[in-house]
Amino acid sequence: QVQLVESGGGLVQAGGSLRLSCAASGRTFSDYAMGWFRQAPGKEREFVTGISRSGLSTGYSDSVKGRFTISRDNAGNMVYLQMNSLKPEDTAAYYCAARLTFSGTYYNSAGAYNYWGQGTQVTVSS
Asked: How far apart are CA 66 and CA 82, in angstroms?
């Protein structure tokens, strides 16, 4: 089992940047593919980005491609989401997720993930 704690959210102006962090504890971190999802009020939770166990494979939603970057530090049990050129439509609660896997891929479906953090709020003002 793994526990996930997100941090780094806040209020930022459009065009600005934020870096979200997700600290994992518990089982061996490198056994997990990781992902970031977000959920705005009244909307379903949506995939933002995912990263494989090794970090060699990543994927992004079309809405964030070219602006957001996911990375991980397996030695430090951390996964990061660098968000640049933020837009008001990026406003949402952002969640870190983990999936225990032997595969070398990432996952883009919320249902594929076993563990979730509590979320961190990102608000982008126009």
From this structure: 11
| pLDDT tens track for 20-57 | 999 999 879 999 999 999 999 999 999 999 999 999 99
Q: Which residues contact 29 (CB under 8 A, 6 or more apart)?
A: 2, 74, 77
Q: Which two tokens stand for residue 87?
A: 């837009």
Average pLDDT, the chain: 97
Q: Which residue has the tokens 């997720």?
A: 97
Q: How far is the C-alpha of 1 from the C-alpha of 15, rounded, in Å?
A: 37
Compute the C-alpha angle 73/109/66, nearest 5°: 60
Report how far residue 70's alpha carbon sits from residue 57's, in angstroms, rounded to the nearest whole number.
Answer: 10
Q: Which residue has the tokens 């070398």?
A: 104
Mean pLDDT value of segment 99-122: 96
